[in-house]
Amino acid sequence: MAKPGLYANINAKRKRIEAGSGEKMRKKGAKGAPSEQNFKDAAKTAKKSHGGVHGGQKKLDKNKDGKISGADFKMMKNGGAVLAGNANRRRSRNGG
């Protein structure tokens, strides 16, 4: 089994500090602190995100910015492709 990665270790230490362990994070460049190369190496093995939205939300991201915002809903209201139920068929029959 693989060891936990750099970010897992950082997050674990932050949780211990928050819980009152008395530890402190090392300053950048201090002995024992992660170097810039450690962060570059960790980035190579990081898991890729899947577009920033979950499950069926991908359909709602009309402007493809990775977030669902008010702009996406305005696009849907003004002729977007995602409407509930048979609304797409009704809209096309009514000419609009």
What does this structure look like?
With 96 residues, the protein is mainly α. It has 4 helices and no strands. It has helices spanning 6-18, 36-44, 70-77, 87-93. The chain starts with 5 loop residues before the first helix and ends with a helix. The mean pLDDT is 76.
What's the domain count?
A: 2
The ordered string of helix (H) and strand (E) elements is HHHH
Helix percent band: 25-40%
Give the termini distance in whole angstroms. 58 Å
Which percent range describes the beta-strand content? under 5%
Rg for CA atoms: 23 Å
Structural class: mainly alpha
Helical stretch count? 4
Mean pLDDT: 76
**DSSP strand tally:** 0
Major beta-sheet overview? none
Contiguous low-pLDDT stretches (5 residues minimum) are none
Shape: elongated
Oligomer: single chain
List the helices and strands and how they pair.
Layout lengths: L5 H13 L17 H9 L25 H8 L9 H7 L3
Entry summary:
By secondary structure, the chain is mainly alpha-helical. It has 4 helices and no strands. It is elongated.
Overview features:
mainly alpha
